[in-house]
Amino acid sequence: MADWTYTVSVRSLCEFTAKRGSLDRRFTPSATALEGQAMQLAVLARRSPGYEIELPLEAVHGHLRVRGRADGYEADVNRLEEIKTIRGPVDLIPENRRALHWAQLETYGALIAADRGLEELELALVYVGADTQNETVIRDKLTAAALQAAFEGRCAQFEAWAAQEAAHRAARDADLSALPFPLGELRPGQRLLAEAVYRVAANGRHLLAQAPTGIGKTLGTLYPLLRAMPGQQLDKIGYMTCKGTGRITALEALSALREATPTKALRVLTLVAKDQACEHPTKACHGDACPLAHGFYDNLPAARAEAVQAGWLDASVQRRIALKHGVCPYYLGQELLRWADVVVGDVHHAFDPYGQLYGLAQAQGWKLALLVDEAHNLIDRARDMYSTSLSLERVRAATSDAPVSLRGPLRGLAKELATLGRAQAADYAPLATVPDALAEALQRANTALGEYVQNHPLEVGPMLEFYFDVLGLQRLLDRLDTHSLCDLQRSAAPRQPSPLDEPRNLSLLEDDDDGATDVLLSVRNIVPGHFLKERFEGCHSVTLFSATLGPPDYPRQLLGLPDDTAWIDVPAPFPPEHLTVQVAQLSTRWEHRDASLNALVDVLATQYEQHPGNYLAFFSSFDYLDKAAARLALRHPGLPQWSQSRSMGDAARRGFLDRFVEDGRGIGFAVLGGAFAEGVDLPGTRLIGAFIATLGLPPVSPLQDQVRERLDTMFGADHGYADLVPGMQKVVQAAGRVLRSVDDRGWVWLLDKRYARPDVRALLPAWWQV
């Protein structure tokens, strides 16, 4: 380690050395990246023609290579600027954050002074209002010697940590270069998957991998990517899951892989949700309210040092270390994200607009590779991330609780929503554009809410959540295009004003209506690829894997993956004769269900009589499920059965699954796409068959017609992207509960004659012998 160099960004160096005092997460409305870019252009327009922007700067001090990009330099006045776009007054920015901004500016000052041989330099910290474009400037003139001394002091503070991190990375890479597979030999299908993951990581490409249950996808993706980590100089691997059960499996695999290394240098971090990690949920996140926020940055170094030595950082370890050092477990985890090698967490950390993993990777210049488990869920999850809605009833309720200063703008917003709802001929209608009057009312409400939460950071309460909703709607409307659908739904309001309501609240409806009608304004994302395209471009490699991803154009086009994204369809490990797949010649269409119910339950009973054991029966809705369960009980009263209910907690779900014992007998009724249709592992004789009484198609509705029309326009007709493809993915996922290992045998009944159609058959697994 005598001859080592550690590269660190200016931002990372300053965050490590300049942040002091208490954590302060009181809301200070931040600008978006697009707003920041716009404000930088606005500032640039006011500067002299020779103003330089985005200056790449670098210097070596000892073993450290420090580099970054300074915002702007005006040579004719010898002024270096750091530009920060903000919302609200400068004095609401916490002091330790302003100190961080100034430390960054001083560091850039030292780098440019050394690079250009300057003897002194004027520094200007420029805060620009996102709404007003007004500049608040903090200036100081420093000598090059003073700037260099401050720079060297920061480097001295960081160098011991850098030496440790360089040693860690060398040990990690040595471990991973010779990493053995923990189970001895890879299975045949698992080897094909592993080779494909390694190839795309080596070539900096992306992969769609359809791989059936039973081949070991978790180890088959983690192992090759860890082996590729040293050669590709990856800074971080993210294992992203769409459901919580996937994180448990990932941690088990990572534990086995880490234990197989000589030094166990690999650092593994679990990202925990804030509501699960918070020790004081009734307290605000700042030093005056929460004891674990008080002095957070003063106590952080000791907690951070212990954590990186521990290396294995699941939720329990993070909590233990945090409480020992008096810091918040959740925000300790956020800090440790910078120093972990593998991060396990929900997909929103990588794909949400405010995802912490992706945001830090871009800010710090990390070389990031992602694995996305159960990736067939990513389309719907991403759609939710880039969709929002606002109801008239919600605006009414907020207006009722609002202080006087907000009532006017909120009443104006309620009035325009009600007016639009009354003018609409049908209860549902798509909107090509939002009327100007409503757009202006929304903007006025946003501005008023923003000013209120800025000026009352300790008093906002529920009003802050409402502001987030209104602001989120505004931001998505600003980016509305063919990738998303804007619509208005009209319905009966949850309640009408009562004579017992306070007069103040009744008066709020004067310019609205009688309160009997509710209106829901929504922006529904249809093609998340518009937003995710830059996410994939910003990662070195992304592998999305699932048992149900095909056809490959479906995820590729809807998620915005590059055209050269690789595709692999891993053969099933099961002999085809182990799974008997049969189609029942009946109809489960809505209009035929009552007539076919006797025949349907007779299929269940006959199969059970011929091959007694545990079965799952999947239906398209709870109403359909209830009818089938009642009819089975009526016609075959001796057949044991149990059903999923509409609202099942964890205990009830465990109780449902606990009925599936080895060599058990009975049929469990469940909803397709629900809690028991995927992610459920019932090996051996715990489950020997499944009945699927639906094609998984979405209900017919005006909204669904709009979704289909939008996808047809973008990708052509007859692709099935709106209904058949996602429906059949649910079917195959549910059927995948039956065979869990190469020794299992079982039956799948497809209870609808439409399964005989060629377009439907084409979406079933090729190895099924239907």
UniProtKB/TrEMBL annotation:
<dbReference type="GO" id="GO:0003678">
    <property type="term" value="F:DNA helicase activity"/>
</dbReference>
<keyword id="KW-0479">Metal-binding</keyword>
<keyword id="KW-0408">Iron</keyword>
<feature type="domain" description="Helicase ATP-binding">
    <location>
        <begin position="176"/>
        <end position="433"/>
    </location>
</feature>
<dbReference type="GO" id="GO:0016787">
    <property type="term" value="F:hydrolase activity"/>
</dbReference>
<dbReference type="InterPro" id="IPR011604">
    <property type="entry name" value="PDDEXK-like_dom_sf"/>
</dbReference>
<keyword id="KW-0413">Isomerase</keyword>
<keyword id="KW-0234">DNA repair</keyword>
<keyword id="KW-0238">DNA-binding</keyword>
<keyword id="KW-0067">ATP-binding</keyword>
<dbReference type="InterPro" id="IPR006554">
    <property type="entry name" value="Helicase-like_DEXD_c2"/>
</dbReference>
<dbReference type="InterPro" id="IPR014013">
    <property type="entry name" value="Helic_SF1/SF2_ATP-bd_DinG/Rad3"/>
</dbReference>
<keyword id="KW-0227">DNA damage</keyword>
<keyword id="KW-0411">Iron-sulfur</keyword>
<dbReference type="InterPro" id="IPR027417">
    <property type="entry name" value="P-loop_NTPase"/>
</dbReference>
<feature type="region of interest" description="Disordered">
    <location>
        <begin position="490"/>
        <end position="511"/>
    </location>
</feature>
<keyword id="KW-0547">Nucleotide-binding</keyword>
<keyword id="KW-0378">Hydrolase</keyword>
<comment type="similarity">
    <text>Belongs to the helicase family. DinG subfamily.</text>
</comment>
<dbReference type="Pfam" id="PF13307">
    <property type="entry name" value="Helicase_C_2"/>
</dbReference>
<dbReference type="InterPro" id="IPR010614">
    <property type="entry name" value="RAD3-like_helicase_DEAD"/>
</dbReference>
<dbReference type="InterPro" id="IPR006555">
    <property type="entry name" value="ATP-dep_Helicase_C"/>
</dbReference>
<dbReference type="InterPro" id="IPR045028">
    <property type="entry name" value="DinG/Rad3-like"/>
</dbReference>
<keyword id="KW-0347">Helicase</keyword>
<dbReference type="Pfam" id="PF06733">
    <property type="entry name" value="DEAD_2"/>
</dbReference>
<protein>
    <submittedName>
        <fullName>ATP-dependent DNA helicase</fullName>
        <ecNumber>3.6.4.12</ecNumber>
    </submittedName>
</protein>
<keyword id="KW-0004">4Fe-4S</keyword>
